[in-house]
């Protein structure tokens, strides 16, 4: 597995290799880190790339951490705003 990839296990126990699109830290919801990712080779019904996000809690004793679901609507709005900003920056750079 490459450094910019993670494996996500869904509620059915299936593993999905995902490419990390970007990560960021935010203090608004308790100094959390967030990771935005896309399942490798998976697209939606329109053929568009799928994106998802989760909160990330660093484990100080190990090199990894724990992915946590984003529960609040406010957190989702913040993540979507960050994603949209990044997408706009990439479009203007092209």
From TrEMBL:
Q: Which InterPro entries does its entry note? A: UPF0473
| Pfam families the UniProt entry points to | DUF1292
Top-level taxon: Bacteria
Q: What family, per the record?
A: Belongs to the UPF0473 family.
Q: What is this protein called?
A: UPF0473 protein COK38_20925
Q: What organism is listed for this UniProt entry? A: Bacillus cereus
């Amino acid at each position: 597995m490459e450094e910019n990839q993670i494996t996500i296990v869904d509620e059915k126990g299936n593993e999905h290799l995902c490419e990390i699109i970007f990560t960021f830290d935010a203090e608004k919801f308790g100094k959390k880190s967030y990771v935005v990712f896309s399942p490798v080779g998976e697209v939606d019904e329109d053929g568009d790339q799928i994106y998802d996000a989760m909160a990330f809690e660093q484990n100080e004793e190990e090199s990894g951490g724990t992915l946590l679901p984003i529960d609040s609507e406010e957190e989702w709005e913040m993540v979507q705003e960050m994603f949209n900003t990044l997408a706009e920056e990439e479009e203007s750079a092209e």
